[in-house]
Amino acid sequence: MKNTILAKLLVVLTIVSIFGCKKDLKDISPPPRPGGSRTIDQQVLDSVYSKYKYLSYWESSVKAVDPISSLTDKYTDSDDLLSYLMGQTPQKNNYIYHPNYNGPLDRFSWLEDISSDSKASLKADLADGYGLYMAFDGDRGDSLFVYFVEGGSPGQIAGIKRGDKVLEMQGDKKMVYSNKAKVDQYIEENTLSIKTENPQRVQKSYNLTYTSYDIQPFQLGKVFAENGKKAGYIGLSSFEELQSGGSDSKMKRGIDSTFTAFASQNVTKLIVDLRYNGGGYVSSSIYLLNKIINTAGNNKVMFKYDLNKNLKKERDQGSQEFVDEIFKKDNGTLEIQQVVFLVSDNTASASEIVISALKPYMDVKLVGYNASTYGKPVGFFREDILNKVGLWAASFKIVNAANYTDYWDGIPADYPNVFDNFYKQLGDPSEDMTRKALNILIGPGSKASSRTAVVRSSVNRTTRELNKIPVRNMVKD
């Protein structure tokens, strides 16, 4: 059965860590062997327990058992065992923005199939599907619209764009919420026949193939000039590799050229569009942070890793895996003083690192489609078990220079419930979230702002997502 997009993304993150760095753990002893022989499946279960107990950020909450088999022999499925262990982590039930999160803090750890018949050999930065994310808009007759097209995907290559109205799929013209179950099926099929209409009422038909593709997360870099003032804009949909095939990745080249343009135009105010950015490599988020940071933050703490007693001991004994990250300004004469982040509850993981790390050093504001970001201050690396499964245990927590952490409920938006106007392209100065950021940074009154005199609120909209952008893991590479 075909993996979902999210499943493949998780597989992708096996080769390198998505929120940080790859770790070689040599200090984890194999579980003590109980009397008698243990089958491979039993050994896998034993190791899931012992490695989770060692690595979990909440290690102290996980009950010690002796012999291990007295617990693991109650299970035949390692995912069920992991769920039980995650259920022992501290409970949190006072969420304001995400009441559906109520329960154990560890809702993040997971197991990946790395057996010989799995697809764990896939390279990182790979997704699968059509790369189309759509929503039903009740304010427009419950019609179906494309709100995001992932770079590098079949949908993007074919020419489908944000704001296109979906007229039919697989010959079915009933593109309304009441038909959601069927539409869900269509976007999981091996091929997709889709007909769209753009805002200029031009209709096109496409035949797409469900496939794996390299994610191209760089969306746009530009400089706005209004009211005699300037503001830079950069949009990233995830944090992927800085290198690809021995050369700089398209994402890195896009970031570099954008910040070169910012420096040449003496930009001091910046919009960072992370509304669809579910995370990625910690190293790539660090790269962006060093492009943004000003002199005030140079050579100062970017963020710290909070660890359990086992990983702290490794660090105390000289491991360099989890030493504090330090800002190293990499933007020439550029001096950013004010940043507005465009966020949603899709903004997670490595994206939240970028936001929290800058807060102690410059004026940071959040314009949100929702009331807060996703809420994922923990990260992972993979620990392989008998070439059968890879355990991704939430193992470290991010803390900024001002000791801000524990944003389990997300980082609150300063300006929440601003409409994500997917009838406008990302980076359009009249798009509601972008317009709000420009009003904050350089004020209203331009021609662009006059076209959108009042920034609309998402509160009274009746938009409902067909499919949601996957949240990436914060992996340490």
From TrEMBL:
GO molecular function, one term: serine-type peptidase activity
Entries under SMART domains matching the protein: TSPc
A UniProt-annotated Pfam family: Peptidase_S41
Entry keyword Iron: no
Domain Tail specific protease: 205-418
UniProt xrefs under InterPro entries: ClpP/crotonase-like_dom_sf, PDZ_sf, Tail-specific_protease
BP-aspect Gene Ontology terms: proteolysis; signal transduction
One GO location term (cellular component): outer membrane-bounded periplasmic space
Keywords tagged on the record: Hydrolase, Protease
Cross-referenced PANTHER family: CARBOXY-TERMINAL PROCESSING PROTEASE CTPA (PTHR32060:SF30), TAIL-SPECIFIC PROTEASE (PTHR32060)
Protein name in the entry: Carboxy-terminal protease
Organism of derivation: Sphingobacterium mizutaii
